[in-house]
TrEMBL record:
The keyword Coiled coil applies. It comes from Collinsella intestinalis. The lineage of its organism: Bacteria, Bacillati, Actinomycetota, Coriobacteriia, Coriobacteriales. This is CT398-like coiled coil hairpin domain-containing protein. Keywords: Coiled coil. The keyword Coiled coil applies.
Length: 237
């Protein structure tokens, strides 16, 4: 394999490595995963809020139940309290106390359906969101696995190309290695060009007869007099 051919293949390998590196760093599925994880954070925050709403609704129901229990105990205690029927004031106080307790019980019975309805609605919203979050988390796990597989496949290509690059670069003479590295950095990877007729394939500036004559005397490569890239003269295997 000629030096010119090695230079062309080395550049092709470097360009492919750069492309794969960019692909690895910007996989669409990675962006989607980031969006889904952000959405999951919001869903979990909403789940925390619904949990608080459900607990408040449960407390409201429990308070009514506790109020009812306390009222019944107060009624039983009032009825068990000895009162002289001839004591008008004591009887009036007892009747007023029992009346107030009865009103409280009526109010509790009036408020309980709404409180239980609010609790049932809160429980249903929380249950649906929890189920949705579970499915959402499972989808993220699957996407993460798919992203890992895609990244692994690209990384395998990168590893194989890196070995090929090391082999190609190692076959270049030391001075050509330095020339290639400097030129590649200067021209952002596109530092080697062919010649088609009298026109270099990258800078596309037609060479003058004197420059063409110099190329004919070059062995494997020369420098473009205009853009100063490496022109491959002999690309034969």
């Amino acid at each position: 394999m000629s030096l010119g051919s090695d230079l062309i293949k080395l550049q092709e390998t470097d360009l492919e490595l750069a492309k794969l590196g960019k692909q690895l760093g910007s996989l669409p599925i990675i962006d989607e995963l980031a969006k889904k994880r952000a959405a999951l954070t919001k869903l979990r925050a909403e789940a925390t809020r619904l949990l608080a709403v459900r607990k408040d609704a449960q407390i409201a129901v429990d308070d009514l139940d506790e109020g009812e229990r306390a009222c019944h105990e107060a009624v039983a205690a009032a009825q068990a309290r000895p009162v002289d029927p001839s004591d008008y004031r004591a009887m009036r106080d007892l009747e007023e106390e029992l009346s107030n307790l009865a009103k409280r019980l009526e109010r509790i019975e009036f408020d309980r359906p709404e409180a239980r309805e609010a609790l049932a609605a809160a429980e249903e919203r929380e249950r649906k969101l929890v189920d949705y979050i579970k499915r959402f988390e499972a989808a993220i796990v699957e996407d993460t696995r798919a992203a890992r597989d895609q990244a692994s496949a690209i990384q395998t290509e990168i590893d194989e190309l890196s070995l090929r690059r090391s082999h190609l670069f190692g076959r270049l003479p030391e001075d050509v290695q330095g020339l290639y590295e400097r030129s590649s950095k200067r021209f952002k990877g596109l530092c080697v060009e062919r010649i088609q007729g009298n026109v270099p394939t990258v800078c596309r500036t037609a060479l003058q007869p004197a420059s063409m004559d110099a190329l004919r005397h070059a062995t494997d490569y020369a420098e473009c007099p205009y853009c100063h890239r490496i022109i491959v003269v002999n690309e034969q295997e």
